[in-house]
Amino acid sequence: MELTGKLLLGDSFVKGSGGSFKGFNPTTSMEMFPEFYGASVEEVSTACRLADESFQAFRATSLEERANFLETVADELEKLKSSIVARGVQETGLPEGRLQGELGRTTGQLRLFAKVVRDGGYLDVRIDEAMPDRTPPRPDLRLVNIPVGPVVVFGASNFPLAFSVAGGDTASAWAAGCPVIVKAHSAHPGTSELVAKAIVAAVKHCNMPTGVFSMLFAASRDVGTALVADPRVKAVGFTGSRQGGLALQAIAQSRAEPIPVYAEMSSINPVILMPEAMQQKAAGIAQAFVGALTLGAGQFCTNPGLVLAVEDPSLELFKEEVAKGLANSAAATMLTAGICEAYQSGVRALKANQNVSCVGEGMNAEGVVCQAHVFEVGGANFLADETLQDEVFGAASLIVKCESVSQLREIITILEGQLTISVHADAGDEPEVRALLPLLMDKAGRVLFDGFGTGVEVCDAMVHGGPYPSTTAPATSSVGSIAIKRFLRPVCFQNLPPSLMMPEISSENSAGIPQRVNGGLKIG
Ligand code: NAP
What we know:
binds NADP nicotinamide-adenine-dinucleotide phosphate, 23 strands, Aldehyde Dehydrogenase, Chain A, domain 1, 7-stranded mixed beta sheet, 14 helices, 524 residues
């Protein structure tokens, strides 16, 4: 399918007037055509106006209409699957199979949110009926979640489909009833244009208000800045660097009306290897660890960047297996030249640290590639050097050799907030793990056993979030059905006349919505 390089304002593809840039193929290190045209500040304003104008009509759509829209976007994406995957492979260097899987995950997310909308439970309707005879009398009170308004989404570089234009942030915002403006990531503009085409087809097919979706390219940071600063925007979803997330949060907080920025940023996803488990299966864990570390050139927010284990012969065996595994690990293409440079700079810093030694290295090659690395440091030195907690985005990890389980615990205590913490434990480790659990919960959004954080299931029970700096908003998740909560706020109606009551909060409940009535849950 032919690409135009035009941005999308509502239903119109327009040649942006804010400068231009080209795509980049990281596998060949060649620029790609066509040229993409960034938005001007005026075009940013137009996208915000369209989103604002469409908000009342979009929030008024029935749950069925909105669910149908989400499913139609999924259907339209499937129609363009081969073009989207082919362009995605060129722009990201990710293998075809990975992008096919990611497209399936993207359509799966959209369909999950369609179910969430139809179910109506997300509205969290609560009814406390009037008690006129009580002293003092209780008024009639009815709570329902409402959409916050237009949402800006910054697509992620490392998930060009599932965390990008029609990804989880967009799907959850639409599900809540919020129009979306996407700032396409400059690392995959062609893929973004194709996805936008699929969305436009769904908007038309479902007769949705045109401003429910716009997508902007950016030739400069002014576009992102202006989007977050626009008073019509009410929330922001972001996945990327800590620096980027914090810069956008600062803009959002300095507005006349500050708004939330739901930024998923940096996490090193500690892996805790308990002594009994290491005695039993150090070699097997090492092999699985190398697989998780090098998957996708390590370009996952859940990549295992830190390993904590107690000094012991089994740790030596673990390291030997890791070194063997790495030696057979081919250099893999990274997403962008900038991400590759950042990775190499992080590796250089670890190599230059006199307390850090290298456990093993992967194969190397010319170009925009990641050579996997695993390093080691002693527990006391880790405790004394906070730079060793910096995320090195890519296939790099640091093993911390702890003197004891009690030092391992001390190290967990000083860790920053994380998306995931993995624990490898056997039955004999149980008392110590039980004692660690409250600390692990305090540090991470997801605590998992006998595995690694990579591979995030999209479902009702998933949390992909965590304390700062893994996110700016630890009470939420950017994956799974609870992601919708970011774009809702509760409103309480007191003594609302029945003639004004919307069906979801009426006591007749003709829509069959789950309602909590006078303290008891009624399902449909
Ligand atoms: P990024 O530089 O933070 O950019 C993400 C998005 O935000 C891009 O669209 C970018 O625009 C925009 N942006 C960033 N800073 C901005 C600012 N000050 N004002 C306006 N817009 C801004 O992230 P990235 O390009 O994806 O990767 C860079 C680094 O981020 C990686 O090396 C890695 O360290 C980290 N990263 C972490 C994760 C994770 O999940 N933990 C995922 C991806 C990346 P432009 O496209 O115009 O630059």
